[in-house]
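User: Before I run my own analysis I want an independent prediction to cross-check against. Here's the chain; please return only the structure tokens and, at the end, one sentence I can use as a sanity check.
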Amino acid sequence: MMLTDWGAVHLFYRYYNINRVVYTKRQIGNVVLPLREFISVAFFTIMLSALATASQAEGLTLTTKQGFELKADYYQPESAGPRAVILLHQCNLNRTMYDDIGKGLSLRGIHALSLDFRGFGESIDDKTDMKKFGRRAVAMDYMGHWPKDVQLAYDFLRKKVGENGFIGVIGASCGGRQAKILAENNPITAISFFSSNVVHNDDADTIADYNSIAKKPTLFISAQDGTFAGTQRAFALNENINSKYISYKGTAHGYPLLEQDKHLAETMVDWFDRNLSKQSHEE
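Assistant: Structure tokens:
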């Protein structure tokens, strides 16, 4: 008997009053089977304790060829392997939104770097500051520099993990487009689109555009906000068996979901820990 295209599992956390649905792509033949996923409360408590004692991020400055200084936080593992994740924030926040995720990744032996986009956080100067010049300046000027800025972050981590290492990327909201551009131009192993509408539902151009990275393992996360339909569409188009879609009720966008679901950061860390490998990339 054929089931739905997605295996759906409803998880209800009474303590946090969260209702989320997890869709997977695990298949036997042409049948998608529902998989149950549980998060151990005991393990979650251990994880919180570990984060409290984890090394603090090291502040970095990445300087562009034109001399602009980009600020970043680098989470260096004590015992580092050839794996790394770039963390790209949403456009109403800055790099600090990923502090718990960065620490969690470093505890798994994964390098992590959270970058302030040009014009945000501490990546500012007298002529480049979203708070001073507004969102029009972001759209008309700053965003045009972001792909090369993000490439600097990638190059930094590539030196850490080596030519054969595995690098992933998380893009929240506006950061999702930059994650997509990075993955189109570099050997990115795994991606997470976090409240980010990389496909505009049935728009043929964005669908064709997404197909260039559709084989990569991808973690999609969204609530029922403006990214909901596009995220569903992108997940349906994705061809990797290790991809997953976590959907929430409500309209929380990006970082508020991390506050709403205290398990989400560890879920994201765990997914990258499992998927930053050659085998996952090729499935």
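Sanity check: Residues 1-17, 28-44 have pLDDT under 50 and may be disordered.
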